[in-house]
Amino acid sequence: MKKIFFILLISLFISTVYADEHELCLTQALLPDLINQMQQAKSKINMTFVFPQKISCRNKIYFSDIDINRNGYTINIDSTKTCHGTKVCHVGHLQAEQSAYPSIYYDRQDNAITWPVHLKNQVLGYFTPSHAMGDFWPAQLQWRQNFVLYTLSWNLEALNAKKNLIEMANSMIV
Predict the structure, then answer these.
(1) SS3 labels along 39-92
(2) Buried-exposed string 54-69: b where 16+ CB fall within 10 A, e elsewhere
(3) What gap in Å lies between CA 48 and CA 65, rounded to an integer?
(4) Would you say 74 and 94 are in contact if contact means Cβ atoms under 8 Å apart?
(5) Contacts of 3 (CB under 8 A, 6+ apart)
(6) pLDDT (tens digit, 9 = 90+) per residue, 110-149?
(7) For 25-57, what is each residue's pLDDT tens digit?
């Protein structure tokens, strides 16, 4: 009886952790400073700032940092306030580049590891799963809209990465 109870308890724990890991939550609740940062950054570049309305709920709060260059912007999302995109504490990012195009990635055997995916409003996206090739690369989804290439990259469990990235991207597409 103890063994069955222990197995049930472990199963419940694993399913609870798994659900929290892959659930998407409202961005505003997890990134309270992002809207203010985007409004301040708007004056520095002639582009519309967008970000997913939902993101992974792995942490209960995240920290954002916006980098602007002449072609666009990158919004880094980190688990600590002083991370600023460093790999060890970096959770994900959204990059927007004017007049850029999606990249197709290949493995060491020259097989494409980037696949086309359909996003809402007939937008075509390109999904690349997380992979190790000299370094570890998190899953990413790229798409073009209004002459801007959006690259959404996030550290997600491989099993749900495609589904979650598509849902995150669809929350941005108008």
Answers:
(1) HHHHCCCCCCCCCCCEEECCCCCCEEEEEEECCEEEEEEECCCCCCCCCCCEEE
(2) bbbbbbeebbbbbeee
(3) 17
(4) yes
(5) none
(6) 999 999 999 999 999 999 998 877 778 899 999 999 999 9
(7) 777 778 878 888 888 888 888 888 888 888 887
**Gap between the Cα atoms of 96 and 166, Å rounded:** 16
- State the residue for tokens 């004056």: 43
Identify which of 50, 49, 77, 81 has the alpha carbon closest to the alpha carbon of residue 64.
Answer: 77
Distance, CA of 39 to CA of 49 (rounded, Å): 8
Measure the CA–CA gap between 77 and 82, rounded to whole angstroms: 11
pTM (predicted TM-score): 0.80
In percent, how much of the chain has pLDDT > 70? 87
Which tokens hold the place of 121? 């409003």
- The pair phi, psi for residue 161, each rounded to 5°, is -60, -50
